Amino acid sequence: MKKPGLVPLMGSLFLVDLGTGMTAVALPLLLIQEYGTTLAAGVTLAVRLIPSIAAGPVVGRLLAERDPRCVAMVSSLFSALFAGMIPLCRALWQIQILTPSPSASR
After folding, report:
1. pTM beyond 0.70, yes or no
2. Is the pLDDT of residue 102 over 60?
3. Residue 77: which of 16, 3, 34 has the closest Cα?
């Protein structure tokens, strides 16, 4: 069964997941390089996960009422914008604000 939008959808999902995966690998390495401690990387990961766990069910219910294509498009655009701003960060809290949570693309 051939769907007309399947190939672009699969391609965009591949690119989003590739970018998310690259950020997930590069961010801890950047933190260790810049701040010299694995504690900073661990604390940053914990702080990134807490909002997803706490707000996930509420935000999920709100987003379920919206057009999924629009939500995915806006989410991907903001993720790309934030990832592009990471090299400009000079403090750990700035990196924390700009990085998406690991479950953000799901």
Report:
1. no
2. no
3. 16
